[in-house]
Amino acid sequence: MLTNYLKTAIRNLLKHKGYSSINIAGLAVGIACFITLALFIVDELSYDRFYKNADNIYRVYVKQFIGGQDGCNSKTPGPLGPELVQRFPEVNSFTRIGYFGQYRFRNADNVHREWSIYGVDSSFFEVFNVDFIEGQPRTALIKPHSMVLTETAARRYFGDENPIGKTLGIDKMYTAEYLKREKDYGEKSGNFLITGLIKDFPEKSHFGCDFLVSMSTYEVNPSWIDLWFSTYILLKPGTDAKAFEKKLAGVVTDKVGPEAEKVLGISLKEFYDAGNIYGYHLQPMTSIYLESFRNYGIDLNTEWSAIRSSDINYIYIFSAVALFILLIAIINFVNLSTARSEKRAREVGIRKTLGSDRLKLIIQFISEAIIMSAISVAVALLLLEIILPLFNSTIDRSLSLELFSNFYTIPLLVGMIILVGILAGSYPAFFLSSFQPVSVLKTSQKSRKSYTRSLLVIFQFAISITLLIGTIIIKDQLDYLQNKNLGFKKDHLYAVMNATVLGSQNETFKQELLKNPNILSATVSSQMFSSGVPGNGYLYNKRSGTDPIAFQYVDTDYDFLKTYQVKLKEGRFFSKEFSADSSAVVVNEAALRAFNDNNPIGKELNPIGRDNWLKTYRIIGVIRDFNYESLHQHVRPLVLHLSPVRQPATTLTIRIASKDIRNTLDFINQTWGRFSAGEGMYGRFVDENIARMYESEARTAKIATAFASLAIFIACLGLFGLSAFVTEQRTKEIGIRKTLGASVSEIIMLLSKEFAAWVLLANIIAWPIAWYVIQNWLDNFAYRVDINWWTFSLAGIIVLFIALITVNGQAIRAATANPVESLRYE
If we measure between CA atoms, which residue out of 382, 361, 381, 509 comes closest to residue 435? Predict the structure, then answer.
């Protein structure tokens, strides 16, 4: 029986090569797209799943609403982790992670600038089961000035030698003022003993580094208000995380409250009664990569630059695209199979007359669909050899199907063959097997109008139009992000990201650069326009403890406004003519809105919870708002300090003339070489830094464009086959019409109008769906494009135009054929 089914199926495939080829091509492209996007989705969902205790590891974060501003911070106070272990039996272990910025490591003459350094507790390896090559996880980071290296870092300094027991030196490289502050927390310099060697952190970890240094080396800031560390806790298996999270309110009351009252001058109750919120919450570690911003509201600017993140929204979008493309391909199969039903009606009648029941016919037709599905999957695997490398280069990944190395791949492919075959073949099978033998054998079968087929075509094009509208608006939003007026002039700004190297020589270096007439200005400031922290968020009082306001701050010098060309709204900027400016600040317009004060000049700001070397500051000026962070969020209150940059992320920004840029950059590099003691310069244009903030959007635009195009191609491929069949069915009618005087244009209009109507109806369905989906996506952005009616019209016109070209190819051939041959048809 099975052999007979197989023979019949293959015979039918070979008999109708054209339709079989269209079906196989459509299914193959759809399956290849589905597998490609599925690989990407699985890759995104696999982050942090490899850790042994992944389901019981949580990151503590701070949720707050202060002075009318809400936000969630992934950083927590230094004492929090030890307090949780001591206080709650549900907590098995904890570890703090502190990102210490960039340092110069040395081993004899082997010197490198390192960025990927974490300070962690000795319990780090109890929470995260990192693979050790040498050393003991429990004791590796107990003693001060001990260090664990990854394989990559070890090879960089020691080649193939075993690094255990050797030392690495860390050089001091900050200004005297910064190092003076460091004494409060211990020196991050000296010689570190290497006590462990681990494998490199997997790519599918939301964090990773090359160096782990012992937290015991430093005196951790004991403040419950300052937020410096990422705190991870390991809960005991079976712990109800939601119930445990409620207990954290007691920590705020007992620990944060007394210190906040001392600083703010008001009790925690008064703080809450004023409408403010402050509390600790838990985030599952497995959600950090995809859900931090979307589902937990965590400000990504509070993440360290080494943290990897994406957006769960894109998983939803690409999952829908993958399913829709596969669905379009399956609809093609259904439409072409039912369209050819009249060709096989007599076969069904004869089989039923000879005793074949309906079940056997259904099995026969589904078997044919499964065989076609198997051929399509085989072709799809060949297409993947072309598609995957292009896709990987677009998203900077190394996805692969792992056909034989992964135990699950082949069973999943077999399952896909059967599932797609059943989905694609069920309706045609039930449709064809329903023919009555008396009816089909007695009469000549004429083409019958199928409303189901029409609805399926309309649905296909509704999906295609939705994808195209989404693609157009995503690209418009990306262009808007990259071209919006940010409140400063970003063209020809060159940023040296590792200006920390120069330390106290930054000012001298600036003056040397300004000797070149093509260098117009330069300023030293905290880092901005990056995925890391642009400044640090701190609370300030404007008058008293009853009105705290959350600010960002940027350390800068006298030339900031001149270099960035940010406009001054009122007051003045820092000037060397005023010696008291060392205790002055400049704020932005967002700060005025937070103050609810239109006359801030001369008012005071008192930092809350900051280091004791900061005192009361007087406001001397207000600058226009400029976007110093991503356009995903509105401009937040900002304080500019006049001081040597205290942060590890020191940036020297240089405004250069628009002419002779290449030689100007060469001059900057040469001058750098005279000051940096041989260390290379890490620099790029500011507009490149800004573009990097929107890499996810750029990647989404590329993927959406590619797969929307493929969706339209698959839909048109089915439309091509369907139009060819309809034209064939109406061959004699066309011949009669031409004999009676119908023109070529009239024949083309006759054959095209039904397909055009389908596409127009598809627009009516697609537009509201596309509007809803895109509206939700645009809600991610504080600054966004408007959804214009012409975008929907453009997408509809494009798809209609492509569909008509597809159909008219068949229509023109039929309209220009010799009517004598048409009348001889059949």
Answer: 361
